[in-house]
Amino acid sequence: MVDDPEHSSEIAVNYSDLDINKHVTAGKYIEWIQNSFETRMYEKSNISEFQMNFLSETYSGENITMHWMTGKESGDNYYFEGIKGSYDHPVIRAYVKFDQYQ
User: Fold this and answer.
1) Of 49-58, 65-74, 78-87, which has the strongest mean pLDDT?
2) 2 lies in a domain?
């Protein structure tokens, strides 16, 4: 859980974000999380671990606030939580770990 977010971004869910059941696809959540990092992060390291838990569906026309913070155990671990609109209802939680290139 992201209890002390360092960053937040607002994401509007569009039709192209949906699967055949009209829910946001897993790929879109991954894309939103990956786009949270600056390009230079990918130039010096790669993602070595990615975990995501789906907690609720998200539909077209809704807004997601993506909160994230650096893990306390290391500067290369990040925790994400996507909150649906004004409901304060989490829809996803994710963990991303980067390893520096050797």
Assistant:
1) 49-58
2) no
Range of the domain at 41: 7-100
Residue 86 pLDDT > 80, yes or no? no
83 is a domain residue: yes
Q: What is the pLDDT of residue 102?
A: 66
List the beta bridge partners of residue 77: 97
DSSP classification of residue 4? S
Residue 1 lies in a domain: no
CATH code for the domain of 13:
3.10.129.10
Tell me how far CA of residue 21 lies from CA of 24, 40, 59, 86, 95, in angstroms.
Answer: 9, 36, 10, 23, 26
How many domains does the structure of the chain reveal? 1
Strand ranges in the chain using DSSP code E only, listed in sequence order:
7-12, 45-54, 63-70, 77-84, 89-100
Answer yes or no: are the C-beta atoms of 82 and 68 closer than 8 Å.
no
